[in-house]
Structure formats: structure tokens, C-alpha cells
Write a structure and sequence with these properties.
There is one protein chain. This protein is of the alpha+beta class. 37% of the residues lie in helices and 20% in strands. The chain is built from 6 helices and 4 strands, in the order ααββαααββα. A hairpin with a 2-residue loop joins strand 3 (107-112) and strand 4 (115-121). Helix 2 packs across helix 3. The longest helix has 11 residues, at 24-34. 24% of the residues are buried.
């Protein structure tokens, strides 16, 4: 059952991050090269925000950014996150409840002692559900 599975059992431990002073176009390029949908923004070993491929790509295509726009100008700063010991049901609820505009959050940073120790995705959770079927 999902209640028995912990975030730490499924999370990815090697987290790709960006910095607030990176240009948006380069952050988007990282997301595409790594084939990931979101990236925490880290400064001085602390998470200060998150950017998503959907948000960056959408705005780049619509030409909403000026040349040289930095990540800190567009990142989400109110970041939902989980801890390694949270169960998957808690993660699923957070992905649903904290998403804007009836969307769903597809990546949650995993935080412990104010440090990023992993990230869990909707895909990770879907795999866990499939295993329980």
C-alpha cells in the first residue's frame, strides 16, 4: 500500500539544480538536456525557488522574456516540498493541494534540515502504484 511507502524509497537523490543568477534560456536548456520537468533554484546551499520546463518553455516560445532574463526574476519562491520520511499519500496530496489553477505539481523537492536531499516526481509515484497493482 502507498501508506507504507516512504518518499525516501522512491526519490531521486542526485538533483539537478540551477542558480538565481543563471539566464532563463540556459536553465531551460538544462531541463531539456536532462529530460526533467523541474529544477530547484539553489543559492548558498539553500533552496530559494524552483523553475519548471513548462513555465520557462511556454514563456520563451511566447517571447515573454527579454534577452538576459535571470532565473530569480521568474522562479516560483513558495515551493511545496516533502521530507524523506513522508509517505507517498502525503506527497500525492501535496502535489494536488499546493498546485495553482487546479493543476498538479509534478516534482517535489525532498528537504531535510533545510537541505535538498532528493526530488520525487509524479512518474516515481505512478511506478509505485503500478507495482502495487
Amino acid at each position: 500500500m502507498l501508506e507504507n511507502k516512504k518518499v525516501k524509497d522512491l526519490m531521486t537523490r542526485d538533483v539537478f539544480t540551477t542558480t538565481p543568477d543563471e539566464e532563463v534560456v540556459f536553465a531551460f536548456e538544462k531541463l531539456m538536456k536532462m529530460k526533467i520537468s523541474a529544477m530547484p533554484v539553489v543559492e548558498d546551499d539553500k533552496m530559494v525557488g524552483i523553475v519548471s520546463a513548462t513555465d520557462l518553455g511556454h514563456n520563451l516560445i511566447l517571447d515573454n522574456y527579454q534577452l538576459g532574463t535571470l532565473v530569480n526574476e521568474v522562479m516560483v519562491t513558495d515551493v511545496a516540498f516533502v521530507s524523506p520520511d513522508d509517505d507517498l499519500v502525503e506527497a500525492i496530496c501535496l502535489m494536488n493541494d499546493k498546485a495553482p489553477h487546479s493543476d498538479i505539481i509534478n516534482q517535489l523537492p525532498v528537504m531535510e534540515n533545510e537541505k535538498i536531499v532528493g526530488i520525487i516526481s509524479d512518474g516515481d509515484i505512478i511506478k509505485a502504484i503500478k507495482e502495487d497493482l
